[in-house]
Specification:
- This protein is mostly beta strands.
- Helices cover 11% and strands 39% of the residues.
- The chain is built from seven helices and 31 strands.
- It has a six-stranded mixed barrel with strand order 7-8-13-9-12-11.
Length: 412
């Protein structure tokens, strides 16, 4: 069987404001139906770069902020055909340019398409608490009145605020959350009641499943555990995997490592979760077939499925793009001529493993007039590097909550 394997726990006691209990999947095997969505571009690479800066509270360079603010339009792309079925896996559907990967879940029996995000720890949804005009902008909204299992969490609120003053906030309840057959009863679900326009632009995503650590959950007065933290004790293995692929349907899988999806052994590296992230060391790199270089002032790297790009230290970014003829830094970020063949990028993930990101993945997106946007951009001197989907599209990745490690192997 492919998928989430569960064993039964009669009771799970958690030190949070509410007791969330994993339950056994109803069937020994199960199917997740892929949903057809309309892929959209939300401002292109510059918007994704600005979004990443805001997410981590970094100051967005003025020129980039002006560019992103002026690009509000949604350009519909070709629909992604998602009519097939596969057993035992949560399919992750890429949006245009692989800007994010969406996967189906169920909350209180209501289906939603969500962004799985290892760089945050809130499970929040667009809901009927929003003003009516904001409920009709392409999102599916969760209606607690239609759930027989929803319970308000009295006095609890949540707020996400980014550096550009964009925000989402609302009240909190608990409900049964089902991801690929793994269920958590009493999972904290954060209902968006007020959101800024920037959150409304991605009409395909109905919310976010945070898969970081509960220490950065924003619920007050008492933080809540993530879905993974709640379901972890009942999984066959205390892991989930991200199998994201370029222009293909990928998958997230809980409790099992599918060995048919990667080459060679998985190399694990310890994480530092003191800041609530899947954070590793990343101190060296190489370009093409060149020798390994040391990043002299390497910042720790966060493995973030909710970010599109690689945001690396300036020394790394400068070393790579200086090898690309015609590459330049402008108001949007780093761009280059689309007809340029990019070298592979090799980056250390932990002390012993070097991941190879093929050159074609370093080309994130065409921006027009023969110019393309780079898949690796500068973190602008921030104290951490962010490794997003550009990296994950080259690596099968295991997030091991039991051993506090992350494992990597190249895709087959």
């Amino acid at each position: 069987m492919r998928g989430i394997h569960l064993y039964f726990l009669s009771a799970i006691c958690l030190s949070s404001a509410v007791v969330a209990a994993p339950t056994k999947a109803n069937k020994g095997s199960f199917k997740i139906h892929r949903r057809r969505i309309s892929a959209r571009s939300i401002g292109g690479g510059a918007a994704d770069l600005g979004k990443a800066f805001r997410k981590y509270g970094w100051e967005v360079p003025a020129a980039l902020n002006n560019k992103v603010s002026s690009d509000q339009s949604l350009a519909p792309g070709d629909p992604v055909d998602t009519d097939e079925e596969e057993e035992g896996t949560v399919e992750a559907t890429p949006e245009e340019a692989d800007s994010s990967f969406l996967a189906p879940i169920s909350i209180g029996g209501q289906p939603l398409m969500m962004n799985f995000d290892t760089g945050s720890s809130d499970l929040w949804v667009f809901s009927t608490s929003l003003p009516v005009d904001q409920q009709t902008r392409g999102h599916s909204v969760f209606d607690p009145a239609k759930s027989n299992t929803f319970k308000p969490l009295q006095g609890a609120t949540w707020t996400i605020t980014y550096g550009d003053k964009s925000f989402a906030r609302g009240k909190v309840g608990t409900d049964t959350v089902d991801i690929g057959g793994a269920k958590v009863e009493g999972q904290a679900v954060e209902l968006a009641a007020t959101v800024s326009d920037s959150f409304l632009r991605d009409a395909d995503s109905d919310g976010l499943v945070g898969l970081g650590f509960g220490t950065i959950n924003t619920v007050k007065p008492e933080q809540q555990k993530t879905f993974f933290e709640n379901v972890q004790p009942s999984l066959d293995k205390p892991v989930f995997t991200a199998n994201l692929r370029h222009h293909e349907l990928g998958s997230y899988e809980f409790g099992r490592i599918d060995e048919s999806q990667f080459d060679g052994p998985i190399t694990y590296t310890p994480i530092d979760d003191s800041r609530g992230f899947w954070e590793i060391e990343s101190k060296s790199f190489a370009i093409g077939d060149g020798e390994t270089q040391t990043n002299p002032n390497a910042s720790p790297a966060i493995m973030d499925t909710g970010t599109t790009l690689i945001l690396a230290d300036d020394d790394v970014v400068q070393a790579y793009w200086s090898q690309v003829e015609g590459a330049e830094l402008n108001d949007d970020g780093i761009t280059f001529p689309c007809d340029t063949e990019l070298p592979d990028f090799r980056i250390a993930l932990g002390p012993t493993y070097m991941a190879t990101v093929p050159g074609d993945l370093m080309n994130f997106q065409r921006v027009g007039n023969g110019v393309c946007f780079g898949g690796m951009q500068s973190n602008n001197g921030a104290p951490m590097q962010i490794y997003g989907a550009v990296l994950f599209k080259s690596q099968f990745t295991v997030f091991d909550g039991g051993n506090k490690t992350v494992g990597f192997a190249p895709h087959k």
